[in-house]
Amino acid sequence: MEPPIQFARTPDGVDIAFWAIGEGPALVAMPSMPWSHLRLEWSIPEVERWYRMIGRGRRLVRYDGRGFGLSQREAPSFDLQAQVADLAAVIDRAGVDRVDLLAAQHSGPPAIAYAVQNPDRVAHLVLFCTYANGRAYASLPVIAATRGIIHQDWEFYTEAVARLLLGWTQPEAASRFARLIAACTTPELAGAVLAATSTFDVTALLAQVAVPTLVMFRPQLRSASFEQSRLLASSIPGARLVLLEGDSVAPYLGDVAAVTAEIDGFLSGSERAVQPGRTGNGALQTILFTDIEGSTTLTSRLGDDAARTVMRQHEQIVRDALRAHGGVEIKAMGDGFMASFGSAVAAVECAIALQRSLATHNATAAEPIRIRVGMNAGEPIAEDGDLFGTAVIAAARIGAQAGVGEIHVSDVVRQLVAGKGFPFRDLGDVSLRGFETPMRIHAVEWQSR
Questions:
Q1: Range 357-369 burial, b when 16+ CB lie within 10 A, else e
Q2: Of 3.90.550.10, 3.40.190.10, 3.30.70.1230, 3.30.70.20, which CATH number belongs to 285-448?
Q3: Which of 162, 234, 332, 361 is the S-S candidate for 177 at Cβ 3.0 to 4.6 Å?
């Protein structure tokens, strides 16, 4: 059953249509302008199911922005602040004091701007396949190519964009979405709204976001940029990046259960993704390996008791570092450890803390402990408390070729922590045993941090 439609008026006199259903903490599902229509969305089974899933136990609020759907079509402006004004008007009219924001694609910049301007009214910020810089988004080849045909062939444009945004593996859903696009607005207004999104740029605001933020991205997407998601996650203080399966910019397609679980866990404050070594398959994890120098000769040099004392010291130092940085010990292997992290930043910080702790220990120890550390990020296979797969093997190989006292990471890890102030030295493409293609490796210059 379709919820009743209400209207909120903005300071510049534009009427914004919205609905609100359910009870509990308020979640505003922002529209990805200009593709939203409050009434027609309920005729799409996937969308209705999505609203039921994310609205469970919440006050779910949804609106059409200016220029499309049931909101006022003509408006004096479609710029960033106008979009922020639409959101603000709906929140005020819905009568909620504090909200969680779910923003996909073009609604990301207005959500970020609102959160910076109203930090006391935003509890959590979820950014799904969105961006900080609209010009960078508009420059993506597929986006630039499709926008050029808005005024040439509207019907062809709606079909092309539907398949581009929803993925080529969902033909029926794309056809339904194409019909919705055609009814959302006019070619003239669509062109004006999309042109306005190209001027959005909240890059300078990212460091000012003071609310918990979850950044979600699907690497298989052609209509979005991982670099923009990386920028969001690395520039917003404390933000967490989650990579998901699928080729659709619509969260209601693909692995909807995984998307919903991530959002539910984040909004409820649960630690679902903080202990990745114990979660199911498909979650992005950073794998860390350590290895002690000279462990094979330790017993022959020191004897059983003395060697075991040194190993216990090593184990204590490693486990203290893992515990302090949220790492999960997967297994101890006698001369080293394998651990997993839900955050690449936490993994690198842990490795640095570990090398520093050992350096302090070695300054006064009769028997110094020196280790090499290797890291990689990926989606390993979890089975019986262990992790398997290419991502794990690569992490082990990276660690094996590192020098004693060094921390080596894959380029994936370096990208995930970009902007966090870690000093890296590019080691170039390195051939790893068992891998046909060389892998770009970086050394963390932890002594200078």
A1: bbeebeeeeeeeb
A2: 3.30.70.1230
A3: 162
